[in-house]
Amino acid sequence: MNLPDAQIRIADVAEPLSTHDSWRATLGGHLYLLAGTGTEPSSRDRVTGYAGISEAPTSGRPWASLTHWVRNAAALDIDTIALVTLRSEPDPDALRVIECAVIRHLNRTTYMLNTVTAAPTPSRALGDSADTYAAFGQLLAIVLRHHALRGRANPLLSPASTLRETAIRVVLASNSALDTTQVLSRITALGGPGYTGNSIGATVRRDLTQREAGLNAGQPRVLSTHLKGRCLYYPNHVPRRTAVARYLDAASTHAAS
Questions:
Q1: CA angle (63 as vertex; 130, 35 as ends), nearest 5
Q2: Is 255 left (phi over 0), alpha (psi -120 to 50) or beta?
Q3: pTM of the model
Q4: Neighbours of 62 (CB within 10 A)
Q5: Computed over its alpha carbons, how large is the radius of gyration of the chain?
Q6: Where on the phi/psi map is residue 73: left (φ > 0), alpha (ψ -120 to 50), or beta?
Q7: Tens-place pLDDT, residues 107-141
Q8: In what order do the strands lie in the sheet with 31-38?
């Protein structure tokens, strides 16, 4: 596939690949997406993926990072490999922002094995241009979802590979504003891992504000506001007024019952 600024090559995988062969197959582009289903019993029916940068190791990406890659690749039964080659040699910071934007956007409906979804340092280094690269990453994710994943998707309200992404899915599925207690209770209802520690509420607020909306280039998936001293989170596709009104309606209904 030829885009104005990139070429995407997609290959179906007809037989199991060794981890080494999978890794070698990702070296032909700037970015890659491995797609298929999970190998764990709990994820055999989930559309699963792992995205990354096809670059030679540097001081910032030592060979030791391959340990993380191998662990995630082993958790994936690959049926498709997609390689993205940009038309011009990208700045490393730009590539990192594009990569994280792809992961964040695919995370909405794909069980992404990536645990790093933020690129705050490259975003700051790029300044005003960072948003342009993040928007390009989102465009790539849309194309990859349609062609590499063939439109396959998991239910929105299902656990993600990290608690932060699970919290984001909970808010996106609500179509309303939620407070911290509601986010936590819905995560618990999904049956996956839950937040632990002495400052659970503060951790949720950090995940949904600073890590999601405050440190990344591009449009955040979840927005936040305050109501009478209470932090509320709502999907970016729902207007603030509507999200807060739905929250208040649900609260009054619950109080009346």
A1: 65
A2: alpha
A3: 0.86
A4: 9
A5: 19
A6: alpha
A7: 988 999 888 888 888 888 999 899 999 999 999 99
A8: 6-12, 76-86, 31-38, 47-53, 111-112
